[in-house]
Amino acid sequence: MYKVSKKDLLYKNLISDGKNKIYVLNNGSVLKILDYDRIIKYNNQGFSLERKINSSNFIGNISGIVFPAGIVYDNGRFIGYTMNYVDGITLYEWNENLSNSSRLNLFMYGSIFVTIEKIIRLAHMKRIIIPKLYDLTNIMIDKKGSLHFISYDSMQVGDDISLEMPGEFNSSSYLKNSYYEGGLFTESLDKRNLISLFFKLIFDIDLNVIGKYNYELGKFITLEDILDRINLTDKELRNKIIDCLEYGKDVGYIGQDIFSLAINYKLDMVEYNDSNQKILKMIGD
Fold it and tell me: Is the pLDDT of residue 169 over 60?
């Protein structure tokens, strides 16, 4: 892990102008300047983003995770880190750019999930948890089709916490009861988020709708409603999803389950509730 001063870096262009600023440098690497308020938030809770970045040097490489390459300071104050550039697009962009016929390919999605799970398993061996797994903009696909997890600073690494809150079922009490142990997220959180990703990536369904009132249906939306909407009749996978999302059980991984679905089901775009809205739904062979 090298240390570098911000003033010694040569900028090529800005690629993200949110609270965190992300630049491509002239040497081809990427600079991520972290939101200062976020750095202070970690410090106020007795933790350190600087330590998390600096200690990555001792973990070793994990295929599929983009580790920090250098730690960056501005007048002696920690501000961010550099990393290797991934020549590709986000998983969100990749999914949005698919043709209509490709969007119906369950085998393709099964392959994506098995690859993601492989990376997650390797991360867990190094005590890394990825609370923002649901965020499709934090997974990149390069020009060769390989997946890369970015945003190392948002991960939980060993005892270095992540203050990121997963997007689905994001009640802090729910997460504390089901997915915390000793003040840290557990591996079960990543497995749960993979299930959330199943709905988001394939069916464009945000599970935050659960518990909200739907005036068209005249009822509060339940998980069962979502499962019925996509026509998930496979009892084993259906029960896995319910056990995980409603009861906080560790049900393992679902990549192989998606491959099994592809054998018995196909995806089709159908009209929803006799309206002009089209949704993806599984159709049994």
Answer: no
Domain 2-83: CATH architecture, name and number where available: 2-Layer Sandwich (3.30)
- Phi-psi group of 71: left, alpha or beta (phi > 0 → left; psi -120 to 50 → alpha; rest → beta): beta
DSSP letter at 65 equals B
Question: How is the chain split into domains, by residue range?
Answer: 2-83, 88-284
Is pLDDT of 107 > 80?
Answer: yes
Q: Residue 285's pLDDT is what? A: 59
Domain 88-284 has CATH 3.30.365.10: no
Within a 10 A sphere around the Cβ of 36, how many other Cβ atoms? 13
Both tokens assigned to 135: 């965020």
Asked if 78 contacts 71 with a C-beta cutoff of 8 angstroms, the reply is yes
User: What pTM, to 2 d.p., does this model score?
Assistant: 0.88
Measured CA to CA, the distance from residue 241 to residue 194 in angstroms comes to 10
Tokens of 243: 């056990």
User: Residue range 147-175: average pLDDT?
Assistant: 77
H helix intervals, 147-254: 172-179, 187-203, 223-229, 235-247
Half-sphere exposure in the Cβ direction for 233 (13 Å, CA):
9
d(C-alpha 137, C-alpha 195), whole Å: 17
Residue 44: how many other CB atoms lie within 10 Å = 8
Give the count of beta carbons closer than 10 Å to the beta carbon of residue 76: 6
